Structure formats: C-alpha cells, structure tokens
Amino acid sequence: MLVITKCAHGRALLPEQDFETVVDAEVAQSLRDLGAETIDLLFLHRDNPVVGVDRIMEKLAEVMSSGRARAVGASNWSYRRIDSANSAATRSGQAPFDAVSNSLSLGRPAEPFYPNLVSADADGEAWHRTTGIPLIPWSSQARGFFTARWPAELRDSPEGSHDAFTARMLAVYGTDANYERLRRAQHLGHGKGGYTATQVALAWVLARPFPVAPIVGPRTLEELDSCVAALSLDLSPTESSWLDLQSPET
Is the confidence at residue 117, as pLDDT, over 80? Predict the structure, then answer.
C-alpha cells in the first residue's frame, strides 16, 4: 500500500504568506490521521504562481529530508510551472516533482468544474509522453458522465430547474462532442462483450501512452468491481482515437 495525500490547499490556492507553516501543519495532521510514519507521495494542491518555485521546492526538500515524505508531486499545476519547479530543484540538487495529479478523462471538460482546477489537455498528454512522469488523474471517469445520468435533453430544461451539481455537469461535460463520445463508448462496450460506457471510459484512460494511475471514486462494492473489470478491456490506439473523436465513424 502506498500512502498518498495532499497539502497546502489554502483558500483554493497555495498560501503565500504562511506557506511553510501550512505545509508543516497539514503534513503533521495527515500523519496523525492516517496513522503513518511517512507519506509515500505528497502532492501540493492548487498552485499559486505568486509563490516562487525555489521557495516551494526548498520546503519540500526539507519535508523529505526529515523523513515525513518519500516523494512529492504537483496537483492542479500548469505544466509550465512544473517545468520551472523541477528546474529549480535540479539547480539546487533537490528532488523534483515525481508525479502529477491533474484531471484526465474521455469526457473533455468545457471549463474547470471548480476554480483553479487543471486538466491534462493535448499538450499536457504530450508532456507526459515526453517526460515519462506519471499522471495520477482525478475525475478519470468524468464525475460519472458516462453513466448517462445527464442526457442531452436536460440541456433544454428551463434555467434554474436543476440542482447545482447537475447544472455544473451540464456546463462542464454537456457538450455535443462529449455526448458523441458517450455514444461511441456505449457502442464499443456493447461490441466488446457487454462493457459499460463507464468501463470503456476508464479503459481509455488506462490506455494512454504514458504512465498513468487513474483515481476512481466508487461508492459501493459493485462500483468498485466495475472499475476493476475495466482492467480486462484492452483498447487499441485506433479504438482510443475513435472514442476521442480523432477519427470519423466507421
């Protein structure tokens, strides 16, 4: 088992004034709450460009040298800032970010679900292919979009008729392109022997051509079993491209 957690969220961004104090306090709290002596992978959550990368990496190096964490990563950081931080760490002989946790799913978000969230777009995927740095994507199943609980017809409902979560799902994932991805996932899953669209979407993430360990959010044992079953679905590069609308219907 690997223990992974995050720290330094602040008020939706990395705190500037008391960054070091917040890191120490939240790492200590995580160790207490998890009953662990060290954190295997510690992510910084939601970057704040105002905080200098040299300052950030120096603090993380101190956390690792004290034995409180074995490795560090960046969650919801732009790839440009990750490159800057890793360069700063290299210059100082410190450990760089070993992993990234930005979102990635077959359902492409039209906008961030919440402020200051970062998705791995085409450029981000290319970055992972080039660097080989693993991606641990959150919302790897597009927050349940591929269950078809939010059909396209809901977009025609009167304004204000949806609860807040439904309204965000429609705004973020309710694009014509994503409904076509859903349709293709349903079609391919049926043809592969009865996989659900959600399983196909997870298999799509697993098939990315770089190290990836998608985060899933099952609420029941049945949902967990469904996620595990997706491991048995192998998608070819051609099928993956087709699912992501990179090739036309055949």
Answer: yes
Query: What mean pLDDT comes out for the span 84-92?
Result: 97
- Distance, in Å, from the CA atom of 135 to the CA atom of 142, rounded to the nearest integer, reads 16
Give bridge partners of residue 99 from the DSSP assignment. 73
DSSP for 102-160 reads -B--SS--SS-SSTT--B--HHHHHHHHHH---B--SSTTGGGGGGT-S-GGGGGSPTT
Rounded-to-integer distance, Cα 237 and Cα 49, Å: 36
DSSP state of 219: S
What CA–CA distances, in Å, run from 124 to 74, 77, 78, 100, 135?
A: 13, 11, 9, 10, 10
Residue 10: the pLDDT is 67
Strand, helix or coil at 54? Answer: helix
Residue 46: which region, alpha, beta or left (left: phi > 0; alpha: psi -120 to 50)? Answer: left
- Residue 74: the pLDDT is 97
Side-chain-facing half-sphere of 187: CA atoms under 13 Å: 11
- C-alpha to C-alpha distance for 166 and 114, rounded to whole angstroms: 14
**Phi-psi domain of 146 (left: phi exceeds 0; alpha: psi -120 through 50; beta: other):** alpha
Quick one: pLDDT at residue 248?
81
Name the nearest CA neighbour of 44 among 87, 90, 101: 101
CB burial string 191-207: b at 16+ within 10 A, e below:
ebeebbbbbbbbbbbbb
Half-sphere exposure (Cβ direction) of 173: Cα atoms closer than 13 Å: 27
Query: Does the pLDDT at position 250 exceed 70?
Result: no
